[in-house]
C-alpha cells in the first residue's frame, strides 16, 4: 500500500531515541510548571534522573502513581527523605505473585473470567501479599483495578519496594497540598512540612486540541469525543491510536480496526473501473407487520 510519512525529526521516535534518560523521566517540561512571573532558574533541572543530588534532603514528591512510587524509592536509595503526596484512593498490587507477573496473571484470568471476578481475585491477592494499606494512608477505590483501568484509564500501581520503605518510615505518606511558603508545604490537614525540594510526578495531559484544529474529532479534554471502541476514526482520513485510555489492549484494538479499514479502502480504490453496460435495476421488497 503506498504511503507518505511526514516526520520533522531525522529519525523515528525521536523522543525516545534522543531524549531518553538514565532511569526515570517526569514528562512535565519545567516551563509548564513555573508560577506566573516567577520562572525557574536556568540551572534547575527539567527532569529527574537520580536521587543522588538529593542526598540528606527532605523531598516532597507530588504524585503517588508508578512514577511517584519509583521516584520516592530511588530517593530513599540515595539517602533522601521523601514525603509522598497521596490525594486520592488508588490500587496498589504486587509486581509478582508466587514468582509470576501480576499483570500476566490478570491478562490470563481476563481471557476466561468476567472482569468483576478478576478484580476480586486481584484485590484478594494484593491484600494477601501487601496487607492492609489503610494503615499506611493508602486507600483502595470502590471500583476494582481492572474495571478502573477499563473505564477511566487509571492503571494500578505496581509495588517495587516502596511499601516496605513506607512501613519502615523512610517514606512518609502525606495528604494533599494547600499551599507553599518560602521553604514549607502546608498540607490539607493543616500540617506544615519543611522541604528542600519538590518533584512533580503528576502525570500528563493530551495536547491534541492545541494543534489539531478545524475538526470536532477530539474534545477539549484531548481525547476522541466518540467513546471506545468507536473513537479510532474521524473525518478526512484521520485516525487515532492509543487514546482509548485502556493501555496497550486499547491501542492494539484501535490499530487492528484501522488496519482493516485501510485495507478495505485500498481494495476499493485499486479495484479496476467497470465498463459501462446495460443498466441494472434493483427491486426492494418491504414487509410491514
TrEMBL record:
It comes from the Eukaryota. Its cofactor is FAD. Keywords: FAD, Flavoprotein, Membrane, Monooxygenase, Oxidoreductase, Transmembrane, Transmembrane helix. The chain crosses the membrane at residues 105-130. Its EC number is 1.-.-.-. InterPro entries: Auxin_biosynth/cation_transpt, FAD/NAD-bd_sf, Flavin_mOase-like. It catalyses: indole-3-pyruvate + NADPH + O2 + H(+) = (indol-3-yl)acetate + CO2 + NADP(+) + H2O. One of its GO terms (molecular function) is N,N-dimethylaniline monooxygenase activity. Belongs to the FMO family. This is Flavin-containing monooxygenase. It comes from Triticum turgidum subsp. durum (Durum wheat).
